[in-house]
Specification:
The complex is a heterodimer. Chain A is α/β, with parallel strands linked by helices. Chain A is 16% helix and 36% strand. Chain A has 2 domains: 93 residues, Translation factors (Elongation Factor Tu (Ef-tu), domain 3, Beta Barrel); 107 residues, Rossmann fold. In chain A, the strands form 3 sheets. Chain A has a 7-stranded mixed beta sheet with strand order 10-9-8-7-11-12-15, with helices on both faces. Chain A has a 6-stranded antiparallel beta barrel with strand order 1-2-5-4-3-6. In chain A, strand 4 and strand 5 form a beta hairpin. By secondary structure, chain B is α/β, with parallel strands linked by helices. In chain B, a hairpin with a 4-residue loop joins strand 12 and strand 13. The longest helix of chain B has 15 residues. Classes of the chains: A alpha/beta, B alpha/beta.
């Protein structure tokens, strides 16, 4: 069930260049059940420019706390990254559908930039059920690779950096792991050009593939019809409600 | 105990708070967050005779204290509403009002004829004010003759309460309100969104696929309050006020200006519980001011 809830900011950890990891605990009540790939609509109380909530992917959630990894992308997200610890933050959650978790075989989880956020929890969930998990994480530079230790503790991690400061030098989409014959499923979240390139490779190779979209949205619950994605089967559908995760077979990419 | 009920045409609402079309889906989207039976009414998404895909993405951009949208009346048409949506929402303990849109007079009449068979549709809101469709919509609402043509045709096809939703994108909204009243409207609602535009200066492109869109949110409230006040002084039928209501205080402001009821729109996106908080606020306000019913509040601004 979706809820509107107050959370207390337990810790605000600056990470990489221009990111904050917000660690939140409910002020009252218990943590709602969250599926990997779902998101929260975050009220930005400390910013005059932010009229609407900001949709932020859930990085990690257990029965006690929840993490949001936020990239400084504008006035609203800058304000979120600057929230003082102990601030009360109002969230609507959990929103959206989330990634498939009934995956058999070998799953490759491909993330770029802040798009790695939902893949951590997805990897943990898949590994716990016995799916073989591999991460392929990309960034401009080593310092933009966030939570690398946490990913490494979950499963095998391959890295691509554009400047070659860590791992493969180049784009994630050029990484040899994407050509591995073991892969039976891909889950991808990152910049649009990266997701489109991964989707193309998955199609060519006949691999089942899900991507997480970040279409601009207002309500986050399928009411305003602003964040639509044009699908093969149903025309315009709300990315906030029927997504943000879509099987690439539904998309007109 | 105060009496919160208000009357719009033949329709009695348990309280003056409704949710605005296009901001509340079919109510179901909000059922996790609020008890829908606490609302005076739900005005469901703009419904057309045939399915509409709406405008291409991107359809929304945030603006100072508001947002621009260019949804373009995306909906699956009145048949889908009647067969799929209506059975799910007809037994809600609130008034279900359908917002009706069209590109021609015949379209509006066709929707009404289909809705006639649905007993629990308490009223319709005739949308002659959508700024995001090329034909019809706002085109009808910007001239007295256009408003008259739609409203009089719908009046012949619909016996239950008819609210006519007006566009603010006109020189004198009171003229259009009078034309709608003369053609048989039981009430008018205002305002729909204000035509606006925003440009991404780095990319040198408009933010919206349609270039222009409808501006809503707190930024339009003072203009909407002014228009409600003008129209309430120009017509005899009830006026339903909307435009940037964010909380109970704002709703009372519209009622003091002459609105019999109010609609909560964009605020639903920011706090999905706004509408029920507004109901609570109005009840408390009436008590604090020694008023026993909403009728004492409507148009009670002192000068």
């Amino acid at each position: 069930m979706k809820q509107v809830m107050d959370f207390k900011l337990k810790a605000n950890e600056k990470c990489g260049h221009g990111y904050s990891l917000l660690r939140l605990v409910p002020v009252h009540g218990t943590m709602p059940q969250v599926k990997p790939g779902q998101f929260a609509q975050v009220a930005v109380s400390n910013c005059r420019e932010a009229y609407l909530r900001r949709p932020i992917s859930i990085n990690y959630a257990d029965s006690h706390e929840m993490w949001l990894l936020v990239r400084r992308a504008g006035a609203g997200t800058n304000a979120l990254c600057d929230l003082p610890e102990s601030t009360v933050v109002n969230l609507m959650l959990p929103l959206g559908n989330g990634f498939s978790t009934d995956v058999e075989g070998c799953a490759l989880l491909v993330g770029g930039g802040v798009g790695i956020a939902p893949l951590l929890m997805l990897g943990k969930r898949l590994a716990a059920r016995g799916t073989e998990v591999r991460f392929l994480l990309g960034a401009r530079s080593m310092s933009d690779l966030l939570e690398l230790d946490l990913f490494r503790r979950t499963a095998e991690v391959a890295v691509a950096t554009e400047d070659g400061t860590l791992g493969y030098k180049g784009l994630v989409t050029e990484h040899p792991l994407l050509q591995s014959t073991d892969i039976t499923h891909i889950a991808c979240c990152g910049p649009m050009p990266m997701m489109k390139a991964v989707a193309r490779i998955a199609r060519e190779r006949g691999i089942n593939c899900e991507v997480s979209l970040e279409n601009t949205m207002a309500c986050g619950i399928g009411a305003c019809l602003c964040c639509v994605e044009d699908t093969v089967d149903s025309g315009n559908v709300c990315a906030c409600k029927e997504g943000p995760v879509f099987n690439i077979n539904r998309l007109k990419w | 105990m105060v009496d919160l009920s208000v009357k719009i045409g033949q329709l009695t609402l348990k309280n003056p708070v409704m949710t605005a079309s296009g901001t509340f889906g079919y109510g179901e989207e909000f059922a996790d967050f609020i008890d829908l039976s606490r609302l005076g009414g739900i005005i469901v998404k703009g419904t057309t005779l045939h399915p509409r895909q709406g405008n291409p993405y991107p359809r929304m951009v945030e603006t100072p204290s508001g947002m621009l949208n260019a949804v373009g009346l995306q909906n699956k048409g009145v048949e889908h509403f009647a067969n799929i949506i209506y059975p799910r929402i007809k037994d809600l303990d609130t008034r279900v009002i359908v917002n009706v849109s069209g590109a021609s007079v015949e379209d509006y009449v066709g929707v009404c004829e289909r809705l006639n068979g649905l007993d629990k549709v308490a009223a319709i809101e005739v949308n002659i004010s959508c700024p995001n469709v090329k034909q019809g919509g706002m085109g009808f609402g910007t001239t007295c003759a256009g408003a008259e043509s739609v409203v009089s045709a719908v009046r012949k096809a619909w016996d239950r309460t008819m609210i006519v939703k007006l566009t603010p994108n006109v020189t004198d909204i009171t003229e259009i309100a009078r034309a709608a009243e003369a053609a048989g409207a039981d009430a008018v609602s205002l305002t729909n969104t204000f035509l606006g535009m925003a440009i991404d200066v780095e990319r040198m492109r408009p933010y919206l696929s349609t270039v222009t869109g409808g501006l809503s949110g707190a930024c339009i409230r003072p203009i909407a309050v002014r228009m409600v006040w003008q129209v309430a002084n120009a017509v005899q039928v009830p006026v339903v006020g909307l435009g940037g209501i964010m909380n109970g205080r704002d709703a009372v402001e519209f009622m003091l200006a002459g609105a019999t009821a109010v609609q909560i729109g964009t605020a639903n996106f920011i706090d999905p519980q706004t509408s029920v908080k507004v109901v609570d606020y109005i009840e408390d306000y009436l008590t604090r001011h020694g008023m026993s019913s909403c009728s004492e509040l409507i148009g009670a601004m002192k000068r």
